[in-house]
Design a protein that fits this description.
This is Cystathionine beta-lyase. The protein is of the alpha/beta class. Helix content is 36%, strand content 15%. It folds into two domains: 2-266, Aspartate Aminotransferase, domain 2 (3-Layer(aba) Sandwich), CATH 3.40.640; 270-401, Aspartate Aminotransferase, domain 1. Bound molecules: pyridoxal-5'-phosphate.
Amino acid sequence: MPDDLPPTTRHSNSGQDFATRVTHGGRPGIREHGFVNTPVYRGSTVLYPSCSDGVAINKRSFEQVMTYGTAGGPTHFALENMVAEIEGGSRALIVGTGLAACSLPLMAYLSAGDHCLIPDSTYGPTRRVANGMLVRFGIEVEYYDPLADAAGLERLMRPNTKVLFVESPGSHTFELQDIPALAEVAHAHGAKVIMDNTWGVHHFQPFTKGVDVSIQALTKYVGGHSDVLLGSVTVNSEEDWLTVVAAARQIGHYASPDDCWLALRGLRTMALRLKHQQQAGLAVARWFESRPEVARVLHPALPSHPQHALFKRDFSGACSLFGVVFQPRYTPAQIEAAVDGLKLFGIGASWGGYESLVLPTTNGITRTATSLDVLEGPTVRFHVGLEEPADLIADLEAALDGLPK
Ligand SMILES: *Cc1c(COP(=O)(O)O)cnc(C)c1O
């Protein structure tokens, strides 16, 4: 069987630009009858040439070998290879949603009696997993100030702390964390560092900064077209791979190969999309900064961001998701009325697609370890898509001009 060969190329010439790597990585070479893309391989049963072959093949079920549908097939493996490459890790596992990618490593590394630290700025559904299942399974969940420095984290570490969860920037509030400094403390105490790296996409390289397990909601920029839900868990050691993949197989995680195929298709244009969206997002964010209705723009790539120095040190670029804090003289209802009047921004959750989105976040922020007063006025999250920024700004200008002065 040709299965001993990896089903797709793992592009290894890392001296090349990201755009070149997402164009050439994860492709079948001449294997798929010469067709450029890995097709959708659907399947549950995998047939073995003989009983003894079946036993031998199943011993390798954590490798990229076809053993049964739930262990993945060529379409999954092509995407795994691409995601591992983008994140700079050794192996990636594809799961059905970004949220599944958040919960899987928490369940893989934590046991009853363990202590887990989660930033107060974490993505809301991650908080629900932690407060729900983790607590029910006897894990001590503690939220911490996302702006804690190494000394602050040191004070929170306990002998049973097994996981430091990080997310930078924070959901809705966009605080950046000093990941290398925090990871050093966690590792000194024998804890694993698990990061939700969805905002960073490829601009934050987690494994050069002390992260052990990196999560992406592939639903966002990788999918890129608001038509697919997927997540990935990437690691950079064989030991971590075995921990994560064993947990995934125990629970029965799986992703549809059709969705993997859509994500692979999305990846081919992601470098170009991100380049446009970074610039367009910054153009819109800077325009907001010039408006008297706005108190603050929450965008790590703007010099006004309180942790901009960390952004410059740790990120090679930005995506197009940011927040806008309006002046406290406005009520959330006034801001929502302005949002309702926007023509080019859809009102909805998620982000990373080709289209611009807007979401009031004032009531979407939970804080249990730090003050809820992090935001002084009504707050709105913007995702800038592939439209011409001047058109978006004209749309926003009309909405803001309608606000009382
Ligand atoms: C969207 C998102 C997720 C979850 O992704 P889904 O595919 O929607 O489940 C996880 N983390 C962050 C930071 C996200 O923005």
